[in-house]
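Batch job 17 of 40 flagged for manual review because the log was empty.
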Amino acid sequence: MRHFISMLDSDPTSLAAIVRLARALKAGKAREEASILRGKILSMVFFNPSLRTRASFEAAMMRFGGSAITMNVGGDTWNLEHREGVVMDADKAEHVKEAAPVLSRYFDVLGVRTFGGLKDAEEDQADALIRSFARYCTVPMVSLESAMEHPCQGLADWMTVDERFSGAAGRNFTLTWAPQAKPTPMAVPNSAALAAAAAGCNLTIAHPPGYELHAHVVDKARSWCAARGTVLRITHDQDEACASADVVYVKSWGSPQFYGNIEAQHESFRQHAHWMVDTRHLRREQSILMHCLPVRRNVVITDAALDDRRCAVVDQAENRMWIQAAILIDLLRHANK
């Protein structure tokens, strides 16, 4: 693949190969494949904060003989413009048209993180900023999360389920909405749904009315489920959705109907505070609890659930490193062909 920005640009077979490679790397195998990272440099451009993404990519590169540098837009760098044909007389001093190809001359791989603005649903769905970087960079590029997807997280989630159950196929995967202190984008739940479908899980998406995920993401997940002989359901009953779940994946996201109306969004969160996940949602002894982190304790998930032995959030976070190493290997391998 040229870039890794969206799972929608790939297919379940290719994604499964990355998960297998990541598991081999974690097991101390695939050393020959990993040698392609030796001496390579990754540049990460952050428009938004990061803990796990930055640390796990840096660790992945250094662990296999490469290196990484991080740039925070507006802090370490100029503010960047991505829109075409604009008069740049405001606070953005440099255009992606120049920044992306220049960085491509210095580095072997680029990574970009840019969250959705949560003001205009159509604008977020276009994912224009990260797509602009992909258009103008001349080396492989990986999404560190965008307005629409967090594909590295999605594949790390797949890997975690695969490890815990000795295979993800056929497992019951429930993606449940939860309340928050502030609205967050749909990137992680979109990717979680796509990963579960690609992995061959039976996928249930639970959320209150008005919190529907992007239709084209759900349609793709449904088609992948159908191809694997599994099912995708959508429900507004959280308890029922979790009753037979092997995986309870928790994530908050804002409703498009409240984009630009923060007070209405906060009121909706208050009205649905009972959607906070607790141990009662882990109905099976072998069920696991997942969340991408960071998580607000006793707002999104209770202390009791997060401290339960069935909580897999630390495993998920570790697997980010292995998955991202596998993604970088795959990108560079194809770039050399």
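Reviewer: the log was empty due to a logging misconfiguration, but the result itself is present. The mean pLDDT is 96. Unflagging and moving on to job 18.
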